[in-house]
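Whether sequence alone determines local backbone shape is best considered at the level of individual chains. In the encoding step, the backbone of a single protein was reduced to a row of integers, each denoting a local shape. For completeness, the protein is quoted in full, as a sequence line and a line of structure tokens.
***
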Amino acid sequence: MIRFNALHRSGATGGSFPAGGDLLRRGVTLIEVILVVTLLSAMAALSYPSIDRMLIQLSMNEAVAPVRNHLAGSRIRALDAGLTWQFRFEPGGRRYLAVPYEFEEIDGDEQQQQAQVELLRRVSGQLPEGYSFAAADEATSGTEALNELAVSGLSNESKLMETTWSAPVLFYSDGTATTASFDVVDEALRSRRFSVRALTGGVRVADPLAEVKR
């Protein structure tokens, strides 16, 4: 009897009550979880602007990449064909094209010229929704009618002839070009500037705001 009373007083019964140490460990674990969640939330809030900027930059890069390729490719086409080539864009719109410019350089009458032009790899395309073209210097600020022969035979010929085009950026058969600049702009007025150098026909793409900060 004495032994039972001693065990009872010391808490050695058949019940399954948690020890004080277990309660403490559970409390500490809950605090740790709350701290980790709070820390992760703070890190996510801090990193969101960086992720947002990265996504915007990726979207802009995807939009301008085909334009850059076709603009730079106009120089290659001029060299290969021995003809003056032109790149044009739709001011305030999304369309662009790269086609021959000087048809007098092609031997033969108009029908023969047309047949030869249709053998050349001409390009027409457009920017994604939410992007548009804008002139950035005097060379591209005006407009000029497009010769129908330049787009003759293309699948969207009628739409191309109805479009109001910028003055042409010209690439010559000796590798030179006209000095010109224009922008691709998104709905938030973020932009990329395309610049063509006359002496080399080289094409450069840059963020004009970043250029100003330098």
In short: Residues 6-13 have pLDDT under 50 and may be disordered. The beta strands are 85-89, 95-100, 123-126, 131-135, 169-171, 180-186, 191-196, 203-206.
